[in-house]
Amino acid sequence: MASVLITGIEPFDGEHINPSWEVVRQLNGVYIANTLVVARQLPCEFGHALDKLYQAIDELEPTLVICVGQAGGRAEVSIERVAININDARIPDNQGYQPIDVPIIEQGPAAYFSTLPIKALVQGLRDDGIPASVSQTAGTYVCNHIMYGLLHHLKKQGSPARGGFIHIPYLPEQAVNHPGAPSMSASTLVKAMEKIIAVSITTLKDLVVSAGATH
Questions:
Q1: Which of 131, 138, 155, 124 is nearest to 57 (CA)?
Q2: Which residues are catalytic?
Q3: Is 100 buried (19+), middle (13-18) or exposed (0-12) by CB count in 10 A?
Q4: β-pair partners for 3
Q5: Where are the domains of the chain?
Q6: Burial 34-43 (b: 16+ CB within 10 A, else e)
Q7: Residues 187-199: tens digit of each pLDDT
């Protein structure tokens, strides 16, 4: 049976919740476009997060892998375009590890591009009234680590599965502790993820429209 693996990340940096897991876990066991959605939580840890991700991929053999993470301070759903081969942690991970200028994969490519239809995803979300944009950076913390590791693994395995990474804003209950920070409701984010999964399943060729940035 065809399946979609969707992952969220455990809380980090003093937060008690992580919107990525709070949202994706609500989709576990749901069928979208006749495809079973399976949600898994990843640790906020360099290395270990990829071990858990690869284990889930090997177990499920999904046709689509969408990893989701928290991007506190961003106001939109961010569809990540690219992951770069570097760990440069501003803060330690949940095991206290803080790699600085360390490649994710020794001798790996400098970067991998998402294989999701990123521009069609943005258009689909906007059509549903959900703020969204293509993001040109997934950072250099665990989220970028996961995205790069995912795409490297699929490439190395010769897998036909497509994959990518989505960053989402704080939930309102987090934003109250970060004055001035934007947020998005869990219900809106669940709707966004449902749309992202549906469009990713049904769209094999991306739109050719501008989604670049000047800085």
A1: 155
A2: 80, 143, 167
A3: exposed
A4: 36
A5: 3-202
A6: ebbbbbbbbb
A7: 999 999 999 999 9
